[in-house]
Amino acid sequence: MTPSSHRIQTPLCLSLGLLISVFFIAGPVWAKPKDQDRWNKKYEVDVFLFGKEPVPFLKKNAGLLPKGKTLDIAMGEGRNGVFLATQGFDVTGWDISTVGLQKAHRLAQEHNVSIETQVVDLEKAELPKNTYDVILMMYYMQRDLFPQIRDALKPGGMAVIETYNVDYLKYRDFRREWTLDTNELLDVFKDFKIIRYQAYDDGEEAYSSIIAQKPAE
Questions:
Q1: Deepest of 16, 76, 144, 168, by most Cβ within 10 A of its Cβ?
Q2: Could you tell me the pTM of the whole model?
Q3: β-bridge pairing 153-164 and 132-138
Q4: End-to-end alpha-carbon separation of the chain, Å?
Q5: Could you state, in chain order, the average pLDDT of each consecutive group of 10 residues for the chain (217 residues)?
Q6: Which of 216, 182, 214 is nearest to 199 (CA)?
Q7: Contact residues for 190 (Cβ-Cβ < 8 A; gap 6+)
Q8: Segment 187-200, tens digit of pLDDT
Q9: Using one digit for the tens of pLDDT, what is the confidence trace for 151-189?
Q10: Is 137 exposed, middle or buried (0-12, 13-18, 19+ CB in 10 A)?
Q11: Helix (H, G, I), strand (E, B), or coil: what is residue 73?
């Protein structure tokens, strides 16, 4: 990944378990070997590095989202996309890591739901326009995807984004370009309907979250 893109690492989950599943990857494989190898090595452990539970903002507000075709960008081990699959969403996940997506399928099997996945180099990805009812991008920062997300949503579709903001730099040694500016998400989606927004700072971490709805035609 270049400095313009970054997957944010959240705290290590300590839940253990041996899971058995069938691993299915659909679609084209676009991946930088160096980035793919690095993330595969991170995910080659029995634990789910980012846990099995979705981020609280998504879990709390999932009922507001239009059920339908859903894209989980930088799906990783699948905690967010699989959660939406359990709620009846038709989920496809994109990620550079084959191992991460394998674990996402294991998690889906654990919850008796199915998902589709594609191994994708997100720095080269082209999202199809007017295709998705919901697009997730959680703790992955790549600013040039913001306009693509806007275009890839169907009219009435919703973007759900959460990642660290600039206030996080008060608490961690972290690259400035990997954090959101103050109110940046509000600016990105200024012509969308803002369904939910938060700028969270508890004195230990700080992040921004948004659910923004594309205007109907």
A1: 76
A2: 0.85
A3: parallel
A4: 36
A5: 54 33 38 74 83 96 98 97 98 96 96 97 95 97 97 98 96 92 98 98 96 94
A6: 182
A7: none
A8: 999 999 999 999 99
A9: 999 999 999 999 999 999 999 988 899 999 999 999 999
A10: buried
A11: strand
Residue written as tokens 């730099």? 169
At a CB cut-off of 8 Å and minimum separation 6, what does 50 contact?
A: 9, 10, 13, 76, 77, 79, 139
Complete DSSP assignment for 119-181: E--GGG--PPTT-EEEEEEESEEEGGGHHHHHHHEEEEEEEEEEEEBGGGGGTS---GGGSBP
SS3 of residue 103 by DSSP: helix
Total residues found in the chain within this entry: 217
Q: Which residues have C-beta within 8 Å of that of residue 92, sequence separation ≥ 6?
A: 26, 69, 70, 71, 72, 81, 115, 116, 117, 118
Residue 148's identity, in one-letter code, is: Q
- Burial-class residue 85 by CB neighbours within 10 Å (0-12, 13-18, 19+): buried
Pair type for strands 193-201 and 69-73: unpaired
Instruction: Tell me if residue 189 falls in helix, strand or coil.
Output: coil
